[in-house]
Amino acid sequence: MIANIPYYLVSLCLFVPAANAVAQDSSAIDQRVESMISKLSLEQKIRLLGGEDGMFIKAEPAIGLPRVKMSDGPMGVRTWGPTTGYAAGVGLAASWDVDLAHRIGTGLGQDARARGVSFLLGPGVNIYRAPMNGRNFEYMGEDPYLAGQIASSYIQGVQSQGVIATVKHYAANNSEFDRHGSNSIVDERALREIYFPVFEAAVKQGHVGAVMDSYNLLNGEHATQNAFLNIEVLRKQWGFKGILMSDWGATYDGVAAANGGLDLEMPDAAFMNAKALLPAVQNGKVPVATIDEKLRRIFRTLIQFGILDRDQTDPGISAYNQNGRAIALQSAEEAAVLLKNEGNLLPLDAKKLKMIAVIGPDAWPAVVTAGGSAEVTAFAPVSILTGLSDALAGSGVTVTYSRGLKPIEDVFGDGSQLSVDADGKEHGLRKEVFKGGDFTAAPDATSTVDNVSGYGPWHWGPPPTIKGVRWSGYYTPRKSGKQWFILAGMGRDGYKLYLNNELVLEESSKEGQVPHHYAADLPAGKPVAVRVEYQPWQEGETLGFGAIAAEEFLDPIAAKLAAKADVVVLSAGFSPATESEGQDRTWQLPVGQDELIQAVEAANPKTIVLVTSGGGVDTRQWLAKTPAFLQTWYSGQEGGRALAKILLGEANPGGKLPISYERRIEDNPAFQFYYPAPHTSDIYYHESIFLGYRFYDKAATKPLFPFGFGLSYTTFAFSNLNVTPTEASPDAPITVSFEVRNTGHRAGAEVAQVYVGDPSAKTPRPLKELKGFARVELKPGESRKVEVKLNRRSLAYWDVTAHDWRVDPGKFIVYVGDSSANVPLTADITVR
Q1: Which of 407-421, 505-519, 532-546, 783-797 is least confident?
Q2: Is residue 598 within 8 Å of residue 551, measured between CB atoms?
Q3: Any residues with CB less than 8 A from the CB of 480 and at least 6 apart, and which?
């Protein structure tokens, strides 16, 4: 494999938009576009700048423009019914496999054509800044070079099928907290070196057909009206010729967006409409030429992809197909990262086993993806339980199962330990409604209820007429010890929990909610005063509240099954309810899961922990006693089959971390600055370019698992590093070659990683930065030469004085290894 060469240069079978346009006369396209525009009145032109019915570009029959269909992505064509669910973006990045990215993109493009979809709203490429971001699972890790290579290949695959890929969310949308109002304050160098390059690669290397602006403000200006982002950088500097659309509901000013470079407001023209733009054109605030140029980009892109000249639905492609299943299986296999394998517990030898206990809330049903616009309904998702059981059918191995934990909805519905008064005679809670939202005023209505169980499927509703609800009473533990008080809201619900009049848990009224809990050690039989004050964000009540002893929340059968089994496979982690678009998640595993792992490991030390998440989690309570740990991300519809193959040794784990995995959340360089500064909406990126491994390389603090790390069932060695020339001009290509050898007894894949350091730089730079990689499949004893090409950009940093890329002459160091922390080969070069 040759790495660090744009994928489109080494693959001759691609159908990127340029390839489709090449088959047509460029001047003929221009003439056709101008003819279409000339037939439109100003009102008709403006009408076409906004979508309709959620997922369509509007039709204009008079100029041959059909209604053009879109679909959410990026792990499946989700909007129009069941589909194939591929491994999540962070898992795809963990594969470090550009060929796989192209295959997934191709599969998605075919799935789109089967459904009449011409725009796939993906890939998502925002940089992983901290593990709490609810959309990290969609994105491609912390390194812009890795993300750019994977995303570009994915885009080329999608567009090879005549479907427009849409790279998102541009730019610096690195959290889901208050995403409509948050203002990302990012310095110029961090933008250019960390947050922009993946979008730049999507444009220059992937030739992406569409870009989606994000919700947030960037340095004080909303992305959809940010001329620096959209005109100066995207259009002028990168040469983007395609369609720039808004995220859904991310437009806030029609005139500013029109002048700020936005072409298409989605899902409809709430702001960029005739009411706003007709007067603006008439009084000269928005030139007609600006409106026309937007239509040129829209029409030209649609023509280049052939969308105006064919039926958007290809009846020759099956919506459910075996090729898609095969790609999904490969994506799940390659995404999994083996982080710990003490005593070579893995792979399991079925011949030596009689019973396997499968335990955990993510073991069944299958958790295909996390939540939000990336969540897909797969045709036939395979869970960990069913995948492992099916793989062992006929082997004589018994597979037992326990969820291990009560669903929190059951806790919300159980009011048996709640009482209105301390004497416990009247079960339930006192409910008071405050129409004015002032909890110090007299309530407008009072009643007694059995429980607080409004938590359920997320939905939009009308604005609230009820402004405040208070539930109060007593909780009396049945057993002494740790008690959990669990609260979960929806949308922008806000709430406070008081125990004995002390505020112990608070959720502000912001976009996005995940369940939270407070733990307290309490004696049995002694009532505790509880009070919940709640502010709903829509009509109705979508809050759940319950209290339970930790011991009762755990299913005792789980430990019993674990004790009887030869080995335990414990599947923990998140789900669409706890990790999703529109909300940030907790760094800790959801309530009860740490305790479940501890209880199971106490019953059986041969416990393999699988974690479903979009990034790092808190492992401190259990990892030391865990012999085997697999990070599975969200593995798509075939996750159960893939993980069974890995556990049983039919597939060798070859994934590598695309993130740095913290020991403590406080160790993350963005931790102190992740949420807005007090009393503002400003999120300061004070860590600047020193994010992830770039930070850990220079800090005394080290991650739990470094960027690029991943274990295998075999071993590899690197040798014979050669860098030519050793003295070079900054504009001359540099070739890095070396050998990788499989020194073990199993076939497997190694990801060879090439980093470059610049100790002579006149400005602070990271110790090293990823500039090339190659995933190499090798049989036992086999070796292969890998060659990586470096260019000027591989050596450069962003000069904030010159506002351009700069290479300082002097010494550079090339590092080669299997992670950012293990680079056994190094070589010096001199740049003149």
Answers
A1: 505-519
A2: no
A3: 522, 523, 524
pLDDT digits (tens, 9 = 90+) for 275-290: 999 999 999 999 999 9
Is the peptide bond preceding residue 725 cis, with omega within 30 degrees of 0?
yes
CATH T-level assignment (fold) for domain 408-552:
Jelly Rolls (2.60.120)
Spell out the residues 6+ positions from residue 440 whose beta carbon is closer than 8 angstroms to its own.
none
Q: Tell me the two tokens of residue 666.
A: 């406080």
**How crowded is residue 731: how many other Cβ atoms within 10 Å of its Cβ?**
10
Taking Cα atoms as reference points, which of 632, 652, 660 lies closest to residue 751? 652
Q: What is the CA radius of gyration of the chain?
A: 28
Listed in sequence order, the residues at least 6 apart from 369 whose beta carbon sits closer than 8 Å to its beta carbon are: 75, 76, 85, 88, 137, 375, 376, 576, 634, 636
Domain spans of the chain, in order of start = 26-66+210-304, 335-405+554-679, 408-552, 716-831
CATH superfamily of 716-831: Immunoglobulins (2.60.40.10)
Residues identified as active-site = 247
Q: How far apart are CA 766 and CA 688, in angstroms?
A: 11
26-66+210-304 belongs to CATH 3.20.20.300: yes
Decide if domain 335-405+554-679 falls under CATH 3.90.1150.10. no
The pair phi, psi for residue 348, each rounded to 5°, is: -75, 145
Nearest to 214 by CA among 138, 290, 285: 138
Q: Give every CB contact of residue 831 below 8 A, 6+ residues apart in sequence.
A: 727, 728, 729, 730, 795, 807, 808, 809, 810, 812
Model pLDDT for residues 444-469, shown as the tens digit of each residue: 999 999 999 998 765 556 666 778 99
Contact call for residues 625 and 370 (beta carbons, < 8 A): no
Euclidean distance between CA atoms 271 and 287, whole angstroms: 17
Give the sheet arrangement for strand 243-246, strand by strand.
51-52, 56-57, 68-72, 119-121, 164-170, 210-213, 243-246
Take residue 718 and report the two structure tokens written for it. 């690197």
Helix (H, G, I), strand (E, B) or coil at 212: strand
